[in-house]
Predict the structure.
Amino acid sequence: MRARARNVSRIAAVGAISVTLVVAGAASAFAATGTSIAPTSAAGTTASTCLPAGRDDAWPAWTDGRPGRDPGVTVWHSATGWHVRVTHNTIHDRVFSGVIRTTGDLVDVKAVRLEKNDYLAVGPDRHTLRFRFDNYGGTDGFDFTTHCAPFLQFGFASDGYVVSTARISIGAGGRHPAHDPFVIARTA
């Protein structure tokens, strides 16, 4: 029985290390993009990042509406905020993980159909959201809203590998990003 307890402890430790490595890899990938993502005004100065109180941040129209159910990651915006879902079509479990970043705030984060081993957390500064889901073929995900967010950086992994852009669908049109990680900039 002690050997079994040690094996369970080792498996848990390896799982924790794997999550740390995937999240660190996604963070490195974001840093490696080197793209300027702060919106600028016509005068070349940085645009205001906050809308009047009580107004949701405005996002591109192509992000609106839920994509069809595709295996992989679906992302969309609606009147209630942002939505992220993951799923796959095999009988074996798959681990989806990722990071969403902004210089604004990620607020009102709500888990959707998570199991006890799934992880979803917003950083103390509310600029970063990290997740790790053991997916068994159903749908796991979360919803959130933004405040004063000029952009959102998304990065996703499946079983420790960057998710193929063909497996990421955004908005009702099912648009695929050019690369993973990717950035969506606010429109107003």
In short: Residues 2-185 form one domain. Helices lie at 2-33. Residues 118 and 133 are 5 Å apart (CA to CA).
